[in-house]
Design brief:
Blueprint lengths: L1 H27 L3 H11 L1 H5 L7 H26 L27 H10 L14 E4 L3 E2 L7 H15 L6 E2 L2 H4 L9 H8 L3 E10 L2 E10 L4 E11 L3 H15 L6 H6 L8 H14 L5 H17 L4 H17 L5 H18 L4 H13 L3 H14 L4 H13 L3 H14 L6 H12 L3 H14 L5 H10 L3 H14 L5 H5 L8 H13 L6
Parallel strand pairs: 1-3, 1-4, 2-4
Antiparallel strand pairs: 4-5, 5-6
Amino acid sequence: MDRVKNVFGKVREQVSGWIVTGAIVAITGFTPQEWTASLFRHFPAIESGWMSGIDLRLVLVALGTAIVVASVLLQTLAWRRLAPVNSGGLPIASIPSQPAADIAAERPTRAGVEAERATPPDAPASSSRETPSIAVLPFQNMSGDADQDHFCDGLVEDIITTLAKLAGLRVIARNSSFVYKGRSVDVRDAAKQLGVRYILEGSVRKSGNRVRVTAQLIDAKDGTHLWAERYDRPMDDIFAIQDEITLVLATEMQVKLTEGEQARLRYTTTTNVEAWSNWAQGMTYLRQALTKENIGAARLYWEKAIALDPDSAALNALLGYAHCMDSRFGWWDDRETATSKARVYVDRALALDPSNADGHIASGLLLTGSRRFDEAVAAARRAVALAPGSADVAALACVILAAAGHPEEAIIQNEKAMVLSPNYPPYFLGSLGEAYRLSGRIEQAIAAFRAYHARSPGFGLTDLVIIYQESGRADEAKRTAEQLLAARPNFTIAAWLNTQFNRRDQARVEADLAALRAAGLPMN
């Protein structure tokens, strides 16, 4: 019996030794010899023998087991907290004819999935519930000169653009936050309406060659002022001020930055103050309706700016975009000339800064026009990855993806854009309706186009005519065609057809053409 006990003891000792060895290496990363030597150095009492009655191996195994059990329990609780919710896009009834303040709270699962898919490989994983969210309200112009409004707006625009590069942050687009311009608003009400936790507000006073910027970050959950600062600097320091503000915001909101995002979290528009002023004035027109007049005015300001700073990737990308729009709608030049001009600017932008999201999105628009659809899709996806929080990029990605034959992916991007910009511009509805239609989701397409027409009379009706005619609702098609001509008396099928050159499915274009003719719309 004693021999059996001795054998059992030897086996137990050997097995426990293996367990302890594994536990030591797993927990500490050191070999047992290194660990023991280190322990003796720090605790000479052990070496003296007063703890010789305690089996340290069993203590280690017990400690290791406790750590493993605790880890499993914590992971189980975390997974329960992150249990999946029901999938699906925005329901038909949620597409408003006017901007709805509570849309931001509906963050669709589809959009969240796409945002995660488009996140760069080195981006931190996080659940949508944990993602910080912020709206940057218009800064108040304290200069006493209304002509300086563009300066205040440009400062906010730059801050939003920089923050939109971060995958770990949801930032509301300028189109939505600027509905509060010139209004006295409780920040908690604004946060609730925009669906965010944090609000940044501030003011700007420009006098001669000096600028004073005040900014404060508020946690709308309880109204706490998390951070406030006043910058009183020479005008040339305006760009450094922007960098400081965005870095502080990311820190205060505890946004997890990847190495790539840390490099991109900096101001990049231009280093020339006068060029920046012209850029800001151009952006004022870009944020209005997409028309020949507005884009033309923006283009003139950007041309002045780029003459002062030709090495600005942002300015080159914006001018590339302006000429892309011209190539589609025929505003100033013939299509070949406009496309050539756009390509020069876009190529220059990406050569200067390969991480410029606007450059990639403009490239995608150009590539669809050249019928290089696979490359266009790659450019759109790259832009989304570089600016995951940009509503503008997501909305234009929708246009590219739908035209290139990826309507379901286009829907995801447009729904995300509408969440990032709850007070979205009307054309978001047109892009969404087109993606719905091309994906076969006809009732949702009808709802989107009706909402588009409600906000921009006459727009969206062309697609409704096609849908009604093709679904056997000929009377509705004719009534809608009459409504279209009443709102847009210069409409012709030929003019419409001239804008459809960038669609991959030309058989679908031919079918659309036949439907418009059958509904009685004029060809020329």
